[in-house]
Structure formats: structure tokens, C-alpha cells
Amino acid sequence: MSGTFSSRLVRGLPADPVRPDLPRAGLPVRRVRHQVRDGAVVMAFSAAASTGVALALLLLVSLAS
């Protein structure tokens, strides 16, 4: 029983964490600029959403007064 448990743990780990598998030739390589662009999109969405929530709360408070 303990053999099955330990084999499940080993299968879940990467083969070599220091040198991970390289992407396959058919897949496009994600470069740092793609990650930076994605981060900028997330920051822009977060800023827009925060501004929208703040404006909605401001409108709600001004209507209540």
C-alpha cells in the first residue's frame, strides 16, 4: 500500500527541477515581452476596475446625501 502512495508522489514531480523540459518545436516560445504585455494588460484592467468601483461608490454616496 505504501508503494502505491510513494509512486504517485514521484509521478507528480518534474523529472529535473533544475533543468526543466524545453518546449516542443511545434509550440511557440513565450518571451519576456509577452509576459510583460500580459502584466500590463492585467494592471490596466485592475486600474479600470478600481476606478469604476470608486466612481460607482462616489455616485451612490452622492445620491444618498
Provide structural commentary:
The chain is an all-alpha fold and 65 residues long. It has a domain at 30-65. Helix content is 68%, strand content 0%. The protein contains two helices and no strands. The protein has helices spanning 2-12, 32-64. It is rod-shaped and about 60 Å long. The model has no long low-confidence stretch (mean pLDDT 80).
Shape: rod-shaped
**What is the C-alpha radius of gyration, as a whole number of Å?**
24 Å
Number of helices: 2
Question: Which percent range fits the helix content?
Answer: 55-70%
N-to-C order of helices and strands: HH
The chain-level structural class is mainly alpha
Low-confidence stretches: none
Number of strands: 0
Mean pLDDT: 80
Task: Report on the biggest sheet.
Answer: none
Distance between the termini: 68 Å
Strand content: under 5%
What is this structure, in a nutshell?
With 65 residues, this protein is mostly helical. The protein has helices at 2-12, 32-64.
Write the layout of secondary structure elements.
Elements: H1 2-12, H2 32-64
Give me some keywords for this one.
65 residues; mainly alpha; 0% strand
